[in-house]
């Protein structure tokens, strides 16, 4: 709104009028911003300005955005007033009443939790509203008839598909099957979206055999009617793969994967990811690695296929479970340069935990060992003085994600995390999270790891004296060392650990060596 105000002021200064430069496309973007921020009242006000005298005009997109916002806000009366006004609107660019506008409003209601908004309820809301306001039954019936005419224009199944979506979001997804029966009774033809929605309902209800039967019905009907638009697409197969993975039906998963590759469809990143997830759910790590290798290979020519961090984490989980630390480390290294999209903090934390899990399952770390066996001496961490200003040592935090700080007597008084360094002119002590976590040398690795994960910290100070299991650092206990998950990774790393392009070549060799049959 600040930008809109500034544009209006600039237009007035040029003598062009307050609305100059703010065309319908720009104002539609502003309407969308209002809806996303939940300010439907402001959206209504802007909408009235757009279609009023001197306004930039409205179009189908304007109405669609506003109806979506009213549906999400459950402002039913306002939405019906907008729908009523469409055919009376003579402003430039005004749309005609269409199934997409009405169904867009209904879809917003469903997304907002109105799962039982059936057609007859929709119609009677109109009747009740108009009768309550005006008592004009003739007008009410005329409006109902008009809406029904619009919804059934072209014998569309759009509304029925929407009602099935409502069932899926409810606690009774198989109710979508009754809607399909109604489609057939009305003499309408189910389309691809109809079948995809029904298959999704079956998968959500764990009725996988039923979902497979509907897949076969799709293919038979497409062949019988010579209608390629009815053939299964990537969405169909992806939905089925999710259900088959949940039921751990490896044979059917492989059958669907083969069918997808032979079908005339475009297999996108989502479809490839669904293949890998389903194979992993069925315990086929080699099969998943084979598909992963195919993704990496094709991503060289098609950047849209570059995997997201989720895929790397899924495969890392499988290898961590069997204790293949080497493979988990390779995948962890390649996730950063090779994946697409941002890697969230939670994803980074999970990757670290998977490295730890793999090391544990590989018996490289014994949980009952004392932490003293794995710690590094405190002075090797090169602690910083607590009174130093961040600006003086900022480059240290580009190198290390966490650094201990000490006072004039050499006692550790805190630990500073990289993500907490937000004030360049502040002392380090002000950015620490209070006294450091402290454990005695005899504490088991298992307890220390639990402490780090529970407190969401990256480092603990190891002291010799003290009988506590965990707690704040005591000045009477000199710091002997520190322990962190990063130290754990270094401890488990081989002396000849691969990096850079070597990791890529090794990962490709592992993929090629896996059983791709």
Automatic annotation (TrEMBL):
Q: Is Transferase one of the keywords?
A: no
Organism of derivation: Oryza nivara (Indian wild rice)
What sequence ranges are listed for the domain CBS?
Answer: 431-498
Q: Which is one GO molecular function term here? A: mRNA binding
Keywords assigned: CBS domain, Repeat, Transit peptide
Question: Where are PPR repeat segments found?
Answer: 23-57, 156-190, 191-221
Name of this protein: CBS domain-containing protein
Query: Which Pfam families did the record assign?
Result: PPR, PPR_2
Which InterPro entries does the entry mention?
A: At5g10690-like, CBS_dom, CBS_dom_sf, PPR_rpt, TPR-like_helical_dom_sf
């Amino acid at each position: 709104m600040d930008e809109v105000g500034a544009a209006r002021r600039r237009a007035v200064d040029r003598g062009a009028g307050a609305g100059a430069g703010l065309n319908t496309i720009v104002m539609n973007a502003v309407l969308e911003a209002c809806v996303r921020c939940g300010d439907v009242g402001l959206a209504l006000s802007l909408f009235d300005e757009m279609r009023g005298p001197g306004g930039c005009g409205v179009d189908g997109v304007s109405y669609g955005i506003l109806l979506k916002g009213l549906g999400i806000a459950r402002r039913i009366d306002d939405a019906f007033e907008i729908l009523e006004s469409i055919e009376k609107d003579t402003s430039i660019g005004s749309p005609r009443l269409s199934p997409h506008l009405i169904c867009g409003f209904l879809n917003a209601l469903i997304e907002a939790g109105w799962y039982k908004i059936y057609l007859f309820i929709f119609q009677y809301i109109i009747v009740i509203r108009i009768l309550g306001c005006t008592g004009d039954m003739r007008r009410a019936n005329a409006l109902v008839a008009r809406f029904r005419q619009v919804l059934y224009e072209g014998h569309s199944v759009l509304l029925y598909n929407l009602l099935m979506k409502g069932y899926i979001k409810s606690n009774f997804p198989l109710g979508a099957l009754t809607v399909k029966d109604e489609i057939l009774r009305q003499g309408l033809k189910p389309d691809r979206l109809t079948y995809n929605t029904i298959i999704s309902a079956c998968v959500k209800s764990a009725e996988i055999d039923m979902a497979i039967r509907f897949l076969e019905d799709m293919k038979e009907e497409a062949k019988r009617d010579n209608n390629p638009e009815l053939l299964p697409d990537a969405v169909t197969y992806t939905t089925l793969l999710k259900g088959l993975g949940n039921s751990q039906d490896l044979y059917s998963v492989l059958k669907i994967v083969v069918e997808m590759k032979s079908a005339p469809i475009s297999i996108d990143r989502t479809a490839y990811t669904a293949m890998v997830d389903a194979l992993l759910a069925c315990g086929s790590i080699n099969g998943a690695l084979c598909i992963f290798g195919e993704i990496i290979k094709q991503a060289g020519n098609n950047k849209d296929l570059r995997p997201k961090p989720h895929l790397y984490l899924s495969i890392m989980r499988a290898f961590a479970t069997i204790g293949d630390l080497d493979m988990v480390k390779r995948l962890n290294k390649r996730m950063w340069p090779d994946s697409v999209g941002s890697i969230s903090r939670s994803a980074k934390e999970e990757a670290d935990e998977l490295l730890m899990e793999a090391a544990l399952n590989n018996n490289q770390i014994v949980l009952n060992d004392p932490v003293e066996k794995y710690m590094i001496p405190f002075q090797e961490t090169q602690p910083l003085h607590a009174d130093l200003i961040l600006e003086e040592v900022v480059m240290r935090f580009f190198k290390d994600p966490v650094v201990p700080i000490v006072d004039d007597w050499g006692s550790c008084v805190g630990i500073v995390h990289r993500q907490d360094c937000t004030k360049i002119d502040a002392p380090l002590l002000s950015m620490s999270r209070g006294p450091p976590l402290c454990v005695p040398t005899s504490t088991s690795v298992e307890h220390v790891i639990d402490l780090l994960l529970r407190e969401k910290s990256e480092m603990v100070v190891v002291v010799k004296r003290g009988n506590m299991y965990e707690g704040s650092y005591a000045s009477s206990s000199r710091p002997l060392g520190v322990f962190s998950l990063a130290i754990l990774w270094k401890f488990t790393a081989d002396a000849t650990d691969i990096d850079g392009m070597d990791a890529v070549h090794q990962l490709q060799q592992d993929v090629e060596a896996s059983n791709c049959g």
